[in-house]
Amino acid sequence: MTAPPLEVPPLSLVQRLVLRIRGRVKIGWVRGPGWSAWLPAYAHVCGRHGVVIDYEHGYGGRLVCPLCLEED
Q1: pLDDT attached to residue 5
Q2: SS3 of 72, please?
Q3: Which of 20, 17, 7, 2 is nearest to 64 (CA)?
């Protein structure tokens, strides 16, 4: 089950810097319908869609673009 894509909030200067250096920045918490817990939400850069929001998937903490998933 995937959560609907969220609109990226305005990022502070520090958050934009961390995003540029690390490739991801924590922006808050997200909870999808039917989920039992809140998960940390991250902003990261997709090559096709720019900055998007997602939560970590799997043990490796992989971030995927929810807009790319909808297109496939």
Answers
A1: 58
A2: coil
A3: 2
